[in-house]
Design goal:
With 309 residues, the protein is α/β, with parallel strands linked by helices. The chain is built from 13 helices and 8 strands. Strands 3-2-1-4-5-6-7-8 form an 8-stranded mixed β-sheet, sandwiched between helices.
Length: 309
């Protein structure tokens, strides 16, 4: 009897895994209303990612932007839109802070000026502001009674369920808040809670990283065109190659150097190409790009501190 139950459990888990891999597993729909202060690419990626998994309907979503025309695409999806940030805070249980870091303080002041502050109590604010610490966000929101803050560093591939996100709690965030944010982010890819001092480095790798990878794919495609391939074919091959290589890294548990060596035969074509890349300092240029992105996040944080003082 125990053996039968055990086999049934294994079969159930295998079926669930297959459903999840194909986006067919059932999810528990969230009841919270979700707000976005800011309507940019990252806000859209987050919202579409969690909607895609069935966690929310667009009727639960409130979005604000200073430019009403920017909200047309949200309105077409069924979201509630407004140019009034205070309305989003009033109507939402969870508010994503998705504006540019340099306009964050002005956005908060507009909310305070336009809102009846009794409607801003006990909100969870999720900050995706690059380079702005939870301490600075909490300081900016000090007039919002009961405000809790969680900082999230997402990336745009979460739009297709392949995101790579990290998060850390502010001083007043609860376990329930962390569980909710984890639910959001797991629905859009992989996620991990980290100490805040690591966030800027992660941002440079995973949040800025897709842009670096797109440049590499474009360059790989350009090389194919240079050698006689049609552009569409070269781009498709380049993108699939990058995706396949990334899965090899994630699934084979081998060091990248080992995987590289397995492709490079003695005196062959690949080692000739690797030699050309090393002469071009490709490795150093990528490391410099990550460093530059991380240092820029530090600069933004320092600016945020000055703006709050």
């Amino acid at each position: 009897m125990v053996l039968i139950l055990f086999r049934s459990l294994i079969f159930r888990n295998r079926c669930l895994n297959l459903l999840q891999q194909n986006g067919l597993a059932t999810t528990t729909k969230l009841t919270q209303k979700i707000g976005f202060i800011g309507d940019g690419s990252m806000a859209k990626a987050i919202c579409r990612g969690i909607n895609r998994k069935g966690l929310i309907d667009y009727s639960q979503v409130y979005v604000s932007s200073p430019y009403i025309k920017n909200l047309d695409s949200w309105k077409d999806l069924g979201a509630n839109v407004s140019t009034d940030n205070s309305l989003v805070v009033k109507e939402s249980d969870v508010v994503f802070l998705a504006v540019k870091p340099h306009v964050f303080c002005d956005a908060v002041k507009q909310i305070e000026k336009g809102a009846n502050m009794k409607y801003t109590k006990n909100k969870l604010f999720i900050s995706i502001l690059a380079g702005v610490t939870t301490t600075n966000v909490e300081k900016a929101l000090q007039n919002f009674e009961g405000a809790r803050v969680i900082r999230v560093m997402p990336n745009t591939p979460m739009l297709i369920g392949q995101g790579c996100s990290v998060f850390c709690p502010g001083s007043k965030a609860t376990e329930a808040d962390l569980k909710l944010v984890n639910t959001f982010l797991e629905a859009t890819g992989m996620c991990q809670q980290l100490p805040e001092h690591m966030i800027d480095a992660v941002m440079a790798v995973s949040a800025s990283g897709p842009a670096f990878v797109y440049i590499f794919i474009e360059a790989l495609s350009d090389g194919g065109v240079r050698m006689g391939l049609h552009r569409e074919m070269a781009t498709r091959f380049a993108a699939q190659t990058v995706m396949g290589a990334a899965k090899m890294v994630l699934e084979n548990n081998k060091h990248m150097g080992t995987l590289k060596d397995e492709v490079c035969s003695a005196g062959g074509t690949t080692i000739a190409g690797v030699h050309a890349m090393e002469k071009g300092r490709v490795r150093g240029a990528i490391m410099d790009a990550v460093q530059a992105a991380a240092l820029r996040a530090v600069e933004l944080n320092e600016k945020s501190k000055r703006d709050n003082n």
